[in-house]
């Protein structure tokens, strides 16, 4: 005889279905750790970020310098800790701006439709056709590489992608009966977007948010590696790899550990979003 739907076994199984697996939990902890490092960098760094603390350039790992020293004899651990502020901070700011603008425009175009939808889609499709790295190089080289410019440039590059993704989802939700009823009773555009469209696409949008964050981290690191990102004496993780590239022939840890930092953050975000969207969709369907 089968157990009733309200049995403890069924409830236990349903609750477990909403939990992230071990990989998701570990990924979340890694992301949280880097976020805390970025916030509390001045308290965690053992040395001032620009201070030359060792006369042995490209020094090895030691008890005094856990991650070695760079090409000028500066502590690599301190520079990675401070670099987290730029890598995480700039990328988060850029992805928030890109997703907010792109998702808002995408939902608006799906609800309004007509000429507005067609014109906006063609314009942003034209921007999408330009390779992201080339567009970033042109914009940063033309305007400058200050932190506000970097944030706006990265956000501008990824707005079209956010728009296309959000519009594709919003068009499907816009055809649902409950949205048609809300429109028939005279609800305004803002209400339709906020209360009817957005709740129906929030799961995939959060997944896309994580992917865009990874793309922006990698693009920012690429710009810094080419010398157009965060400028000295400050440095993000991409700049740390670039400035210590000469240590490859010495097997210097100053090249290895910034690369590991970039990989740990981007891989953790990817692994986390593999668990998050299904969890949110399941709860939305239950509601």
Automatic annotation (TrEMBL):
<dbReference type="GO" id="GO:0055085">
    <property type="term" value="P:transmembrane transport"/>
</dbReference>
<keyword id="KW-1133">Transmembrane helix</keyword>
<feature type="domain" description="ABC transmembrane type-1">
    <location>
        <begin position="84"/>
        <end position="273"/>
    </location>
</feature>
<feature type="transmembrane region" description="Helical">
    <location>
        <begin position="86"/>
        <end position="113"/>
    </location>
</feature>
<keyword id="KW-0804">Transcription</keyword>
<keyword id="KW-0812">Transmembrane</keyword>
<dbReference type="GO" id="GO:0000428">
    <property type="term" value="C:DNA-directed RNA polymerase complex"/>
</dbReference>
<feature type="transmembrane region" description="Helical">
    <location>
        <begin position="250"/>
        <end position="273"/>
    </location>
</feature>
<comment type="similarity">
    <text>Belongs to the binding-protein-dependent transport system permease family.</text>
</comment>
<feature type="transmembrane region" description="Helical">
    <location>
        <begin position="205"/>
        <end position="230"/>
    </location>
</feature>
<dbReference type="InterPro" id="IPR050366">
    <property type="entry name" value="BP-dependent_transpt_permease"/>
</dbReference>
<keyword id="KW-1003">Cell membrane</keyword>
<dbReference type="GO" id="GO:0005886">
    <property type="term" value="C:plasma membrane"/>
</dbReference>
<keyword id="KW-0813">Transport</keyword>
<protein>
    <submittedName>
        <fullName>DNA-directed RNA polymerase subunit alpha</fullName>
    </submittedName>
</protein>
<dbReference type="Pfam" id="PF00528">
    <property type="entry name" value="BPD_transp_1"/>
</dbReference>
<dbReference type="InterPro" id="IPR000515">
    <property type="entry name" value="MetI-like"/>
</dbReference>
<feature type="transmembrane region" description="Helical">
    <location>
        <begin position="134"/>
        <end position="159"/>
    </location>
</feature>
<keyword id="KW-0240">DNA-directed RNA polymerase</keyword>
<keyword id="KW-0472">Membrane</keyword>
<dbReference type="InterPro" id="IPR035906">
    <property type="entry name" value="MetI-like_sf"/>
</dbReference>
<feature type="transmembrane region" description="Helical">
    <location>
        <begin position="165"/>
        <end position="184"/>
    </location>
</feature>
<feature type="transmembrane region" description="Helical">
    <location>
        <begin position="21"/>
        <end position="45"/>
    </location>
</feature>
């Amino acid at each position: 005889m089968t157990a009733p739907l309200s049995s403890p076994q069924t409830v236990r199984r349903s609750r477990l279905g909403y939990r992230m697996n071990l990989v998701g939990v570990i990924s979340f902890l890694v992301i949280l750790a880097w976020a805390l490092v970025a916030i509390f960098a001045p308290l965690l760094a053992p040395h001032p970020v620009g201070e030359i603390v060792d006369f042995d350039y490209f020094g090895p790992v030691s008890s005094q310098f856990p991650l070695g020293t760079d090409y000028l004899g500066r502590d690599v651990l301190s520079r990675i800790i401070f670099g987290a502020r730029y890598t995480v901070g700039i990328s988060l700011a850029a992805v928030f701006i890109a997703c907010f603008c792109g998702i808002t425009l995408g939902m608006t175009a799906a609800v309004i439709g007509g000429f507005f939808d067609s014109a906006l889609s063609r314009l942003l499709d034209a921007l999408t056709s330009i390779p992201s790295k080339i567009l970033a190089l042109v914009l940063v080289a033309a305007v400058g590489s200050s932190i506000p410019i970097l944030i706006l440039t990265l956000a501008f590059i990824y707005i079209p992608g956010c728009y296309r993704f959000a519009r594709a989802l919003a068009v499907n939700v816009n055809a649902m009966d409950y949205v048609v009823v809300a429109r028939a009773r005279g609800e305004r555009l803002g209400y339709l977007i906020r209360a009817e469209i957005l709740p129906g696409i929030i799961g995939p949008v959060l997944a896309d948010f994580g992917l865009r964050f990874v793309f922006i981290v990698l693009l920012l690191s690429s710009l810094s590696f080419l010398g157009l990102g965060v400028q000295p004496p400050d440095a993000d993780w991409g700049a740390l790899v670039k400035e210590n590239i000469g240590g490859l022939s010495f097997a210097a840890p100053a090249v290895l550990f910034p690369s590991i930092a970039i990989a740990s953050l981007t891989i953790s975000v990817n692994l986390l979003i593999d668990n998050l969207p299904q969890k949110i969709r399941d709860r939305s369907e239950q509601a």
